[in-house]
């Protein structure tokens, strides 16, 4: 992409309405614009990150055996009346009436709808287990939308739903998602910690929130220090195998959110030099609630002995749009955002120090071609801005590598590569710099 043809409305000053760094940087880097309280438009740069995050979630959910579907944002109120949640959800639910005076709602989550879809599509226990997910916009009329996309009213969520014949098999499905979540977040460069959590309006008695530690997090959390660098399941994890050892290892050490915290237990189980009490951001939340929805919505299959069995279900959410803010909270410095390669909107920022100079333009054009042809995402700053402004914009938008080309370098056959994270600058021959960058970027696309 040539910057001269792109839409990147960066702001030099920090907008006053933004309280936390990720919100400030998302506005300054031209990633989002607020359209009304807690509702955002995603501009080109922000959308690229959102899509990359969604694709990592998709890739890892597919790997764990889940199957993608797409349900609508607008749902009928009738289903929610059957499950009993229409009243329970209260003012957080956006209720709509259509022209026939039918009660509709903008879905805050999809347990009811998926349960009826599954019920109507499956007859026998032989069709189990199954896990269906979608990545779709949700609406919750939060009393206090804040921190930009972190607590929005409209937000993008991945929600998966598992269906099993027995509680024991249902727990196996829960374990698959538990392991998959560790990989999803690690692939974005985040160290998440699963913590025992309250189930709120979703229900059930088994639940973990996946938390990343950050000063600006909304939750107070408590955990054992050793969880901060716990082992991530490998890419070739066998999701059909017994995943209990992975889950047991992660859950054997104390980790709880505020609502589930037991101070006496924390003190008894965790040595004082290993006690972590910090703020955290909830980037995912998984639930196992057995037959809470399958009973009232009559989601049953014929069991092996011919009698109908209500299915055991779990639901598994990832805050896809929240993650954009969460990753920035974890990955930034004074100059701006520092994207990990797998979620970077572009992987390389090519800076032409003297647009209009035939030699520099030619060198940049051929480097751009080679990188693009190798499948690298490149943003090429071919504008007439001065060098200082170009560097500041590239630092702000946080592309992992900057490739700087100027007339002097071209004359000497050299270009400069800057690593955004470390700040290291390296002179590399123009002839080999594309290959060097291709190798570096590709080696970091999958971090675990
Ligand atoms: N049905 C279940 C799981 S599929 C569910 O809705 N779970 S949830 O309420 O915990 O939401 C799942 C994830 O969505 C959360 O972990 C969080 O990362 C994200 N999320 C929830 N509310 C918001 C919000 N207001 N703004 C941005 N992200 C949110």
Radius of gyration: 24 Å
Bound small molecules, deduplicated:
5'-O-(N-(L-cysteinyl)-sulfamoyl)adenosine
Number of helices: 13
CATH superfamily of the largest domain: Bira Bifunctional Protein, Domain 2
| CATH C-level name of the largest domain | Alpha Beta
Structural class: alpha+beta
So what's the overall shape?
Answer: globular
| CATH fold-level topology of the largest domain | BirA Bifunctional Protein, domain 2
Give the low-pLDDT segments: none
Strand content: 25-35%
**How does CATH name the architecture of the largest domain?**
2-Layer Sandwich
Helix content: 25-40%
Describe the oligomeric state of these chains in a short phrase. Answer: single chain
| Overall number of domains | 2
Average pLDDT works out at 96
The N- to C-terminal Cα distance equals 28 Å
What is the number of E strands?
Answer: 23
Q: Main β-sheet: number of strands, strand sense, barrel status?
A: 9 strands, mixed
Can you give a write-up of this model?
By secondary structure, the protein is of the alpha+beta class. It has two domains: 3-337, BirA Bifunctional Protein, domain 2 (2-Layer Sandwich); 346-444, Anticodon-binding domain (Rossmann fold, 3-Layer(aba) Sandwich). Helix content is 32%, strand content 27%. It is built from 13 helices and 23 strands. It has helices at 21-28, 44-63, 77-83, 85-88, 111-121, 167-187, 244-251, 263-269, 320-330, 358-373, 387-397, 407-412, 430-443; strands at residues 32-36, 39-42, 67-68, 74-76, 94-97, 103-106, 130-139, 154-164, 193-196, 206-213, 219-224, 255-257, 275-290, 300-302, 308-310, 312-319, 332-333, 336-337, 348-352, 378-381, 401-405, 414-419, 425-429. α1 packs across α9, α2 (44-63) packs across α6 (167-187) and α10 (358-373) packs parallel to α13 (430-443). The mean pLDDT is 96. Residues 109, 111, 140, 142, 151-152, 155, 157, 159, 202, 282-285, 287, 315-317, 319, 321-322 line the site of 5'-O-(N-(L-cysteinyl)-sulfamoyl)adenosine.
């Amino acid at each position: 992409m040539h910057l001269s043809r792109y839409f990147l409305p960066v702001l030099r000053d920090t907008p006053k309405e933004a309280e936390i760094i990720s919100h400030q940087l998302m506005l300054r880097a031209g990633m989002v614009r607020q359209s009304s309280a807690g509702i955002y438009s995603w501009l080109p740069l922000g959308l690229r990150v959102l899509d990359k995050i969604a694709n990592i979630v998709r890739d890892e959910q597919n790997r764990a055996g889940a199957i993608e579907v797409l349900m609508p944002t607008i749902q009928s109120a009738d289903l929610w009346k059957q499950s009993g949640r229409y009243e329970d959800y209260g003012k957080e639910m956006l209720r709509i009436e259509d022209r026939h005076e039918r009660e509709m709602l903008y879905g805050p989550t999809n347990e009811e709808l998926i349960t009826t879809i599954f019920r109507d599509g499956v007859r026998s226990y032989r069709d189990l287990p199954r896990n269906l997910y979608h990545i779709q916009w949700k609406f919750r009329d939060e009393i206090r939308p804040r921190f930009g996309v972190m607590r929005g009213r409209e937000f993008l969520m991945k929600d998966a739903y598992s269906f099993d014949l027995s509680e024991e098999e249902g727990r196996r499905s829960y374990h698959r998602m538990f392991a998959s979540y560790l990989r999803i977040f690690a692939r974005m460069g985040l160290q998440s910690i699963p913590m025992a959590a309250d189930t709120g309006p979703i229900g059930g008695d088994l639940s973990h929130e996946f938390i990343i530690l950050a000063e600006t997090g909304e939750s107070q959390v408590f955990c054992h220090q050793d969880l901060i660098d716990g082992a991530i399941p490998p890419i070739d994890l066998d999701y059909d195998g017994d995943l209990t050892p992975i889950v047991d290892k992660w859950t054997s050490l104390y980790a709880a959110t505020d609502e589930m915290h037991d101070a006496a237990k924390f003190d008894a189980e965790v040595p004082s030099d290993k006690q972590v009490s910090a703020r955290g951001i909830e980037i995912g939340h998984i639930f196992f609630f057995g037959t809470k929805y399958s009973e009232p919505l009559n989601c049953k299959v014929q069991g092996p002995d011919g009698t109908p069995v209500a299915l055991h279900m779990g639901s598994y959410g990832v805050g896809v749009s929240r993650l954009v803010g969460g990753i920035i909270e974890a990955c930034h410095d004074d100059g701006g955002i520092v994207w990990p390669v797998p979620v970077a909107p572009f992987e390389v920022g090519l800076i032409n120090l003297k647009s209009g100079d035939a030699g520099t333009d030619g060198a940049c054009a051929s480097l751009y071609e080679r990188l693009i042809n190798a499948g690298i995402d490149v943003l090429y700053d071919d504008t007439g801005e001065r060098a200082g402004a170009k560097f500041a914009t590239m630092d702000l938008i946080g592309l992992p590598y900057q490739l700087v080309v100027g007339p002097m370098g071209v004359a000497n056959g050299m270009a400069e590569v800057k690593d955004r994270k470390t700040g290291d600058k390296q002179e590399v021959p123009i002839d080999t710099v594309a290959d060097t960058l291709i190798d570096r970027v590709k080696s970091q696309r999958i971090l675990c």
